[in-house]
Amino acid sequence: MIGFLRTLRQYWENPKGRHDIKDYGKALFIIMLTAVFAVLLLRMFFHE
Asked: Disulfide: which of 11, 13, 22, 35 matches 17 by Cβ 3.0-4.6 Å?
């Protein structure tokens, strides 16, 4: 785990790595938001 965190920190310290990590974070946020929206729609339409 320590090696993973060290590698992640090194990746964050260069401009390309920081940009990539921010992009991955944005993508994860959009995916999670879409999943929550889909669940809410399904619950609304198929509520028993």
From this structure: 11
